[in-house]
Amino acid sequence: MIYLDNAATTYPKPKEVYDALDFAQRNLSFNAGRGTYKKSQECLQVLDDLRKEIASICRADYRDVALLSSATEALNIIINGIDWKDGMNVYVTPFEHNAIIRPLYNIKKTVNLNIHILPFDKETWEPELSKIENMFALDNPDVVFSSQISNVTGLLIDYSAVFELAKKHNSVTVLDAAQGYGIVELSTKNVDFIVFAGHKSLYGPFGVGGFINLNDSKLKIAKSGGTGSDTLNHDMPDFKHERYESGSPNVPAVYGTLEGIKWLKNNNVKEHEIKLTKYLIDSLESLEKVGVYAPVDKSKMFGIVSISVDGYSADEIGHILADEFDICIRTGYHCAPLIHEFINSTINGGTARISISGFSTKEDIDSLIDALSTF
Hints:
The protein contains eleven helices and 13 strands. The protein is an alpha/beta fold. A seven-stranded mixed sheet has the order 2-8-7-6-5-3-4, with helices on both faces. A four-stranded antiparallel sheet has the order 9-10-13-12, with helices on one face. The longest helix is centred in the first third of the chain and has 21 residues, at 38-58. The radius of gyration is 21 Å and the shape is globular.
């Protein structure tokens, strides 16, 4: 099997992660901090160790890292924790995931939100800053969302320029860094919340995600329950991450993610993916029937490439690659509802998405190209 669906989840994981998961299932499957006994306290320390590693990536306070089950849960807690009022304006880029879009539209069922799509140039894929500035002047941006990397096209989105304009209007800014956190450097300037996913760029297992509250903002409580602390208080604890974490934490997944980050620190995944992304794009462009969804400057793409093939729908491409060549890619709309109008891919039923990782090789790309050349 050739696996090229790493934007969905990285596979394989480092051997250290598999070993850590086995160890944790046998030795750290206890309820963290709920007991005074040694193993419970060891599990509590594992949680803090991961918070510190997550925080060190963007030089944040580890106590501001909320560990949850996924990036989707993190975005739901942020979105449902904002004090929405009728008439508020929220802005999203055309590249946003349904983990943002669907919670916003769910809020819109009971609150009269104005949801605006930020304009991006269809050739360069850069934000049209003068138009955005005018939009913000007309309809004050209360909350602005942007991804760090598009999960459909691999575009490195210029969120910093957008957030700089937004902060002139005192906006809340949320950065969805699920595709690149820990690999691609990011700027925290003008960012209030960063969302991460353990099973993607951090090379951990499923079951860990979260957010970093950079400005110590107080969100409304969107999920409540037991935390093991301040038990007689009927309200959630009010201190840092404890405000947003309830229920029994997934300690084995946390321990596995911790090892994934340690592995990342010792391997130059970014450089590998930059080189392999260029090789992938150049190879795809050599095929007459293949079209690559890309901006003018393809160096702004990282790790993810979407394509079309003349005469085939996106799903047909995926089925043929899987059934005849044992090559795994992702096809369709990739849980990103807005981008397909932007790149004009709805006519093909979405895109065929190829996504690489630190374990992908040139040989994997060559096999894909050989398979696509038969179409």
